[in-house]
Amino acid sequence: ANVIAGPGANTVQPRRDRPHVSLYLAKAVQREIKRIAIDYDRKPHDLLIEAVNLMLAKYGRPSIAEIDGGR
Q: Cys-Cys link to 25, which of 29, 41, 45, 65 (CB 3.0-4.6 A)?
């Protein structure tokens, strides 16, 4: 039987416990982040989280884990 998927069938459900944050970067910067992720077998998202943690530390703020209760 042929099954036709309706609109949104392949979409990812948003996380309701966390807001979405967008970041606009030059394509070349985005490519570099992807290359670093590949080189270190990590996801670009994980590298961006690492960057946010570094920024928080620089300004004397608690880490994401400390703010978020370790979630």
A: 29
